[in-house]
Amino acid sequence: MYTVKETWSPEETFAFGKEMGEAAVPGGIYCLNGDLGTGKTVFAQGFAAGLGIHENVNSPTFTIMQVYKSGRIPLYHFDVYRICDPDEMDEIGYEEYFFGDGVCLVEWAEQLPELFPADVWTIQISKDPEKGFDYRKIEVSQEQETE
Question: Are strands 2-7 and 136-142 parallel, antiparallel or unpaired?
């Protein structure tokens, strides 16, 4: 599966994140990639809203992971920007969350590709200054595991 969504404002990026959160099911892993300032946090806030989470959602850059349980399913929001070694993820017990009862949203996931199963959702957000300051291209893909 592959989808491209263009957004022209933070509100549209939020709305697309919300749409994806509304469709999320337990066990889903969403890898959220993009340079600094591309709107990953805005997307994550929308995703959380789609799960029915009304808490303030920010990137857990220094805490690595933030848990939100107030929605219809738990959200485990990771920011692995500062993780240099997959063993650091072992130390926080990431597998319990990746293969648990909630949904995982992992910012900067491209830094640790070896941690993820084949059937994750990959969300790549990019800017194009020629199309405007608030323009974002959001590419969503999911590889299906083959048996």
Answer: antiparallel
Residue 80 sits in a domain whose CATH number is: 3.40.50.300
In a domain, 133, yes or no: yes
DSSP 8: S
DSSP H/E element including 15: helix 10-23
**Domain interval for residue 48:** 2-142
When divided into structural domains, the chain yields a total of: 1
Q: Which residues contact 132 (CB under 8 A, 6 or more apart)?
A: 8
Tokens of 79: 């920011």
Q: Which tens digits make up the pLDDT trace of 23-44?
A: 999 999 999 999 998 999 999 9
- Which amino acid is present at 85? D
CA dihedral defined by 38, 47, 13, 57, rounded to 10 degrees? -60
Residues 82 and 50: beta-carbon distance below 8 Å? no
With respect to residue 147, please indicate whether it lies within any of the assigned structural domains: no
Tokens 């048996």, located at residue: 147
Question: pLDDT for 89-122, tens place per residue?
Answer: 988 889 999 999 999 999 999 988 888 988 899 9
Which stretches of 51-119 are DSSP H helices? Answer: 86-91, 94-98
Can you give the pTM of this predicted structure?
0.91
